[in-house]
TrEMBL record:
Condenses 4-methyl-5-(beta-hydroxyethyl)thiazole monophosphate (THZ-P) and 2-methyl-4-amino-5-hydroxymethyl pyrimidine pyrophosphate (HMP-PP) to form thiamine monophosphate (TMP). Binds 1 Mg(2+) ion per subunit. Gene3D superfamilies: Aldolase class I. It comes from Pararcticibacter amylolyticus. Belongs to the thiamine-phosphate synthase family. This is Thiamine-phosphate synthase. One of its GO terms (molecular function) is magnesium ion binding. The keyword Magnesium applies. Residues 17-193 form the Thiamine phosphate synthase/TenI domain.
């Protein structure tokens, strides 16, 4: 089942002084049409309380809401899908668990990861990174840079891998145009907005540059 995937994904994060609910409201008010709720600091009960607040906000604004990893919560709140960060996850099993209607995203770093995920036949989009150094999701994966995305998208096109590919990891406003010129489908952003002096302005600018294509 082919699903709508936005070209611009905004990710909430654990921040001092601004809750995930506040981040989601700010993003919706600034025009974001896709939010990934990425909370790594709460148990299921706390997550549900917060995600239900965020879901109500997203519903008011017509914004798609995705949750990171916690796919067992999909039937307990108005969430449209899940993004799985474990590249070795059993995506077929997750698809069976969540059903065909929910959106399933996956993380990748290499073309080998993308091939394996694509072969599962279960995933709707892939977030590939990191583009450059990122402190939102510390890891030791190789940095891709613009040339890395060019190489990956060329192979995907040659091999007929049609899954939407989003760049993620350390992307700033100044990187947006060069990245979109590599053939990727879109971008996923967190810190460039959440740590900006004016998050609303930053989101609107990045969103406009990404969606206008």
């Amino acid at each position: 089942m082919k699903k709508y995937i936005s070209n611009f994904h905004y990710l909430t994060q654990d921040l001092p002084g601004r809750t995930h609910v506040q981040q989601a409201l700010l993003a919706c008010e600034a025009g974001a049409n896709w939010i990934q709720y990425r909370c790594l600091s709460k148990d299921d009960h706390e997550l549900l309380d917060e995600v239900n607040e965020i879901a109500a906000i997203c519903d008011d604004w017509g914004t798609t809401l995705i949750i990171t990893d916690h796919y067992h919560l999909l039937d307990k709140a108005d969430i449209q899908g899940v993004h799985i960060e474990d590249m070795q996850a059993d995506f077929r099993a997750i698809r069976t668990a969540i059903g065909e209607d929910k959106t399933l995203g996956a993380s990748a770093n290499t073309i080998a990861d993308i091939r394996r995920i694509a072969e599962s036949g279960a995933v709707d989009y892939i977030g590939c990174g990191p583009f450059t150094v990122t402190y939102t999701k510390p890891n030791d994966y190789p940095l891709l840079g613009v040339e890395g995305y060019k190489a990956i998208t060329e192979v995907m096109q040659k091999e007929g891998i049609p899954i939407p590919l989003l760049a993620v990891g350390g992307i700033t406003i100044g990187d947006t145009e060069a990245l979109l010129g590599t053939g990727i489908y879109g971008i996923a952003v967190s810190a460039a907005i959440n740590h900006a002096d004016d998050p609303t302005k930053a989101l609107r600018e990045m969103y406009r540059k990404t969606i206008k294509r």
